[in-house]
Amino acid sequence: MTTIGGPEVLEWGPLELAEPGPGQIAVNVTAAGVNFIDVYHRTGLYPLPLPFTPGFEGAGVVEAVGVDVSLEIGARVAWSTAPGSYAERVVMAADVVVEVPDSVGLDTAAAVMLQGLTAHYLSHDTYSLAEGDSCLIHAGAGGVGNLLIQMAKARGATVFATVGSSEKAEVAREAGADHVIDYSTADFGDAIEEIAGPRPLAVVYDGVGAATFERGLGLLGRRGTMVTFGNASGPPAPVDPLELARHGSVYVTRPTLRDYTGTRDELLQRTDDLFRWIAAGDLEVRIGSRFPLSEAATAHRALEGRRTTGKVLLEA
Question: Rounded to two decimals, what is the model's pTM?
Answer without folding.
Answer: 0.92
